[in-house]
Protein 1
Amino acid sequence: MSDATSSSIDRVPCTVPSCGRGIGAAAWRRRFGDLDLETAEYVCQQHWSQTPSAMRKVYARARRRDRRLGMHMESTGRIWRRIMTEMRSQARTAHEHPQRETTT
């Protein structure tokens, strides 16, 4: 097994470009269950907290519904993809227009 493959199995990186954070495979399995590297998307705490609270609440409501029904609804996936699109857009905008520190 190559080095690149073994390192990708050990950690799942944050989906926000240029973020160096991630989650270990063992921690992923404890929190979320099975790990499929093809579809796994993880958001670190820093970027999740920057997601608008309304989006987080809608996603949490959809996840509760999924647990109550015992199945994964397609709408939950659409909500997650919308959150990912918004986060990547925010990261891209922040990267293109970094805030300048002001000194007083």
Protein 2
Amino acid sequence: MLASADPDMLAAGSDASRLEDRFLISGQDFFDYGASEIRAGFISLVPKTRMEELVRPLMLQERRQRTLMALTLSLLFIGTLVYLMWASVSNWRARSCMREPASASPSFRRTAPMVSIF
């Protein structure tokens, strides 16, 4: 390492390969850039502890949103099933009221109107 923006944290002359356990390293090498034969590489170092501090609020928000979405979809699914069961039971009751009891006399029979589709 030739230069550092924060010499107190990272001194010039440090070996970048030894810093991987404490820092998140990202960068780009510039080999054969223009007429120069010097291999130059620029890297950015972010302390892993600082990165965890930056990521923690995002992770908490994402977990809250995922929990809320799961709860919403579960309630929607349960609501749909309850509605379908209620509609099925209501339809069954309506059809069972239309049936005539076996012991009913002919004068008390309910008759449904005759509908022909064809």
Protein 3
Amino acid sequence: MINAHGPQPSQFVEEMPITVDTRKNDKQWEERQRINILKNWEIRIQFHDIGCVVYIGCKSFAFESVSSAMQVVNQYTDDPAAVAKAYGFEGHL
């Protein structure tokens, strides 16, 4: 019905069911969580004559070789929660 103010919105809008692809939303949420963890903790590397120390936030981890440290840093950037759990600092994330 059209009144003095013009047509009512419900006259022209057909209700359409909204479907949400939860797989896509879950992946987006997981990626957002990963990025938020990485943004919140500074990663610093201090090199020594043999190996290095990797600092993640207030935690420090000594490695005998730079290559082994880089492997763990790469793993951390891919899945910070899993590495935090493996190294015992998941409560700090």
